[in-house]
Predict the structure.
Amino acid sequence: MTEQKLDRQPKSTTGKTDTEKSATGKPSTGKPRPEGNPNFLWRSGEMVEWDKATVHLSDLAWSAISAVFEGVRAYWNPESEQLYIFHLEAHLKRLFQSMKIMRMTSSFSKDELTAAFLQLLKANECKGDTYLQPLAYFGGGVPGYMAILEQPGEIVITTRAAASGLDEAKVVHCNVSSWSRITDNVMPPRAKAITNYQNSRYVSTESFINGYDFGIILNPNGKVSEAAYACIFLIRDGVAITPPLNAGILESITREALKDLLAKEMDIQVIERDVDRTELYLADEVFICGTAVEVQSVGSVDRYKVGDGEQGPVVSCLRKLFRDLVRGKDLTRAGWCTPVY
């Protein structure tokens, strides 16, 4: 099968069953690929079979220097048999912002990429919790270390099954890392760039070696920035506190959603301010959040027990609210969830 050109206009949803036709127009087998990979990925306007989505090996390394990406979750609601993409518009906005910082332009509009997400999920017959990753990079053999001004990027979107952990009260244990957070004048943290994640990789490797689940990163001013791959909150004396954007954090979409739930649904004051390391030791609750980790309680920091070392009442309530939200059950925030079928 050759690459199939996608219609640049969104296609209507007809509610076809697995025994009729998939989103590609081909008869649906209703069976996953034996190796567990999806049937298709989307590449710059074309639906491409997984095994045929190749680039030359010589393009592999340097293209990653300027590559940017997003991590997006889609949640399956078995009661309504509907798949919801969480905050797709916000993720696409951040993707375009990351591309701008890299001086990369997009050949596709927000609406065209939205249609691509929907078509790809249907083509892969995704009917379960799914992780989507759009990736933008300079293709065509352009070395990533070269000075590039406002050039179009290749955009690839992939999907994979990724079960949510929101149904379980997971508690993780953290340390404060010896590595410092990157800064805006070095490698801007607000760009969700592949190269920025080397910072978190150093942190998480150190934490793993020393028997922790996650590392917490301080910025060069000695203030708490974020955890490796996740943002951080602490609850102290009934107030939710989280480091500000200029502490070197990624402008997290999950963080913004949780701030809204804390303030409007739980009537908890949310403050953005600098956080000292020792405040984590004295907090009543600490939790990390992000697309990948969702919402997870921190049981200890540097082997100082946080609260009673278990999931606290604030995080317990917040996790349940967030779970209902992403599965499309919170009708007051229905606009945050894009239905697929």
In short: The longest strand covers residues 171-180. The two ends are 26 Å apart (CA to CA).
